[in-house]
Amino acid sequence: MKPIIIVHGGAGDIPDSRVQGKLIGTKAAVIQGYEVLLKSGSALDAVEAAVVAMENDENFNAGYGSVLNLDGEVEMEASIMSGTNLDVGAVTLIKDFPNPISIAHKVLTDSPHSLLGGDGAKRFALAKGFSTVSPESLVSHNARKALQNFLKHGEFGRTEIGAQDKADVGTVGAVAVDSNGFVAVATSTGGMSGKAVGRIGDTPQIGSGTYADDNIGGVSTTGAIYFDVFIIFHN
Fold first, then answer.
1. From CA 201, how far away is CA 189, in angstroms rounded?
2. What residues does the record give for site: Cleavage (predicted)?
C-alpha cells in the first residue's frame, strides 16, 4: 500500500507572528518522515524522524523551543506507540537531551518498561548511547520571554509562545502508515509555560497523548480538549 504520514505542530490560537514558522516546520517534518517511508522504513522510524525535525525547530514547543517551568528549566516528555503489537515507549522530565522522542523509541525497543522519567530516564538514555547537552542550550529566547511574561502577569497555562489570547496547546506529533500497513504514532512536548517543577502532562501517558492500533488507526493529541492528527481505518 502507499505509505501515509500526517504531522501536527500544536493546536489552538496561534499568533500571526508564528504561523509561517510553523507551516515551514511542519512541511519539513512531513518530508523527513515521508522520506523514511519511501525508503521502505517502518512507520515507527518515520514518526520519530518527523517529530525529531520539530524538536529541533524552535517554532515548536518540543525539544529546542520548549517552554520553561517555574525554575526556568526545560522539562520535556514524549511517547511513541506501535499499532502492530501495541508496544509503547515514553519518557518524562527530560532536561539534558535534545530529542526525547528518540529516547522514548529506545524505551519501546530496548526496555522492559513503558515509561521512564527524570534521573531514571537519563540513566537509561546514557546507557543506550545518547549524549547529553547543556540544559541551557535547549532554552530559546522566546521561551525565556514567555516565562517572564508568566511571572509578570500570571498567565498560567499559556503554552504557545507569543499567544495573546487563548492558549495554543503546543505539542507536536505524527501519525504514519507504512507500505506494510503498519501504524505508528509519536508525540512530544515541552508542556506548559510556568508549570510547576516536576509537572507531568498527558503526552507520555499512552491512551491520552498517543495511541496506535493497526486494526483501528492512530491518534496524536495535544491537551485534553484537542485531537490534532488521526487516521481511522474502517474494516
1. 9
2. 170-171
